[in-house]
Amino acid sequence: MSSAKQTSESEYxxxxxxxxxxxxxxxxxxxxxxxxxxxxxxxGGGGKFLLLSLLLSNxxxxxxxxxxxxxxLRSLPGASGGRVLxxxxxxxxxxxxxxxxxxxxxxxxSFLEATDKEKKxxxxxxxxxxxxxxxxxxxxxxxxxxxxxxxxxRGRWGKDTSEIKVQYADSLRDARKEIDDGARRKAEIDVRxxxxxDDLAEIRxxxxxxxxxxxxxxxxxxxxxxxxxxxxxxxxxxxxxxxQLTDEEKRxxxxxxxxxxxxxxxxxxxxxxxLGRIDFxxxxxxxxxxxxxxxxxxxxxxxxxxxxxxxxxxxTREFFKNELALAIRDIKDEYxxxxxxxxxxxxxxxxxxxxEVQGSANRANIEANYQREEVKRMRDNIGDLRGKxxxxxxxxxxxxxxxxxxxxxxxxxxxxxxxxxxxxxxxLRRMREECQTLVAxxxxxxDTKQMLDAEIAIYRKMLEGExxxxxxxxxxxxxxxxxxxxQQEDTDSTRSVRGEVSTKxxxxxxxxxxxxxxxxxPNGKFIMLENSHRSKxxxxxxxxxxxxxxNRREIVYTIPPNTILKAGRTMKIWAxxxxxxxxxxESLVYDGENTWGIGANVVxxxxxxxxxxxxxxxxxxxxxxx
Length: 626
Prior knowledge:
Elements: H1 2-19, H2 23-33, E1 37-43, E2 50-57, E3 60-67, E4 83-89, H3 101-311, H4 314-470, H5 472-482, H6 488-491, E5 501-511, E6 515-520, E7 526-531, E8 538-539, E9 544-549, E10 553-558, E11 564-565, E12 570-575, E13 587-590, E14 601-607, E15 613-625
Parallel strand pairs: 12-13
Antiparallel strand pairs: 1-4, 2-3, 5-15, 6-7, 7-12, 8-11, 9-10, 9-14, 14-15
């Protein structure tokens, strides 16, 4: 490398020396050549040098023009990034004929004056050229010294810088790719969010339509319910009347049954009395037969006693005959009395029972006739009531059918409404999940982008600090200006990193109402506000956004009056010249600042008209080094 630089320096010196020629030599060369020639000189300085000499000789006007132009000679060995000094000598002639002596004298005088003037100009130009060459030599010497210093710096730092460049080139390329992918995905997310918002608006419209129809159905149902209530009240009244008549019928039926039971009881008693009479008659017959049997037995005993008496003594026979006659008479009297008394009792009891049964039968007949008339009247009333009840039951059945139809329709409407609500809830839940997923992905991408931006910023600050500490930036800029354009790419790789730096960014949001600070762009482009309520609009007029950067700088923006943020919508407040369009209320542009600012500790606060904090957004970035 050093040998190439020395070769380049020797070529520069030879080229500069070859440019220094006496005026007479140039004039002689021009006169001898008779045409134009070109010489090329390599120089390390920049700028242009123009030498004009006007020569008039032998009626020939000779124009010598020497011009230095800057050109990169990257094709020459050892002259990378140098300057090219071209000397072009153009000579032309124009024949002049038919000139008078006066004109020749004037021409000679003009020629001498021009020659003197040219001589003076050439002397001045030669002096300037000499000064320029001296300056170029000094610059070349300084250039060689700077090149040596640069080579020394490259020898010390070039290896680490190249490794760091190779190491971070892939990371930076991946970071740029991730940022581009994140921007593309963010655009896709914005498109999907817009489509989801349109779907949500359509679902809300359908939901409101269903709600309106449901309210109409509810009014109709309420009317039918009132009609049904009236019919049911009338039906209950008729049912109460019918129950009253039924109770009366039951009471009459009970009385009739009771009377029939009494009649049946009387008949049973009559039958029992008849059976008793027959039984008593049978008993009388039995007693008569028994009496007849006893009489025959008595007669047999008497005969036997008489036979015994015939065999016994006369006094004994007489005694027993008398006693037996007395006993027989007593027994006969007693038996006659008992039979007579029993007969009288039976006849009196029978007559009494017959009279009672006849009285009961008469009363039962009277009551039965009354009951028959009452039952007939009740049957007529029941028939009439049954006819009315049939009509009312038919009307009730019709009303119940209508109620059933309305209930079925109501159930269908409720099922459709619930299905629509379930579909809406499912759609909203799916949309929320998708939005949360997209927001999480976007937040992850933004976190990655912010982390990469922070790492790049820290890397840049470290490089700038290292370059400013060793004075590398000034030397590199000097070399770039005086040496070559190709080496400008190498200055980007003269960077050194002494350790690894990691960043951690945390976000914290809080709100006291429906308005939240949904997002703050890490690059300070915009701030997004969101109305999280589903149906309530919020007036953000004259609210203030206060953004404090690292507890030093504070930016305050006042939202224009009568700015309404719709329910479920967002509002972006862009900084000036950051790509935002002023389209209230979805998009506003803050003309007071071209950025919302970035920092390690950023606090954004939303303050209402009363000076109360309604929402905050805190961003903290922590840097750790190893």
